[in-house]
Specification:
Helix content is 30%, strand content 17%. The chain has 349 residues and is of the alpha/beta class. The protein has two domains: 3-105 and 337-342, Enolase-like, domain 1 (2-Layer Sandwich), CATH 3.30.390; 117-323, TIM Barrel (Alpha-Beta Barrel). Helix 5 (185-195) packs parallel to helix 6 (211-220).
Amino acid sequence: MRITHLERTVVRVPFLPGILPPAEYEQFTDSYPAPLGERRQDVLRIHTDEGITGLGMSGPYFGDHQHPAPDLVGRNPHEFEPRSLGGGGYDIALLDLIGKAIGWPLYRIFGGKAQDRVLVDYWIARMGAEASAAAARRASGLGFHGIKVKCTLDDGNVADRVQAIHEAAPSLRIVLDPGHRFHTVEQALALAREIEAYDVVFEDPIPKDDIDDYRRLKEGTSILIAPHLQNPRQVIDMVARDAVDGINVAPSDWGFLDMARIAEAAGIPVWQASNVDLGIFDAFRLHASAAAPNCTLASDVCGNFVHEHSLLAEPLVRDGYALVPDGPGLGVELDEDAVRRYAEGLPQG
């Protein structure tokens, strides 16, 4: 088998109503210089002389993205060591291609399937209490068991949003993700005292400059404390100081599995992070999640239901769980009509 050519399609899929923040809650940074709805992603394909095609996807980005394609033409996919292939772009397509070539689902390459389905939360951005309650009703109606809420203490409405969500859908767990913007242990504990009666998780509530701050926060509240961690060293340090109840793991590939296994040894559950992607990337993350037995907190594989379309022929998520595909490679197919519909018409090289 030889790789014959690579193909890139730039797409932009709008978000569904009620997901993104209204104008009064929008804040732009160097990393997010425009509304989330303006982000693009690349659908990537690696074609071979045997008619097998590997599917991949870039992470989301703003503006134009003209990174040169890797020099893969003429190479045999079997030459690649799967462990050397990371979590994005053409590396996903290579892993999909390797899985298809040997007839293995990607979760087998990742070490074997520990679970057939992965718990997933609904997802919303910063907004008011009434809009949050409406989102909670949608989430509950779709069968979700939890809702992840972007927020900041400076909004002044976090406790109101929690109460409104609980009243609208009492069965939902509420994950609050302020991106460190509960600021200090004291401020986070003051908020916790207002909402401890509800089923709440604090994700990344305060900066991670001092692990002892996380330990003090964990000891001071019954709310689950779960930082968003980027590498194995952080997991080792947090676990050693008994500073966490759970972990949101940032890497989506082998790094996720390394970090999850460290946490598992300490009896700590994890979940899979995301960039609110589209279906191919979500499927990739799902296979890694399925190979981690302690990936039992609700993951962020949410791109399939917050956009108008996932670009997949079949949805991944049903009743609040992402179902792990059993076909070779990623085990998913593209909805080609949807890809054409959302293609941006930009240069595709």
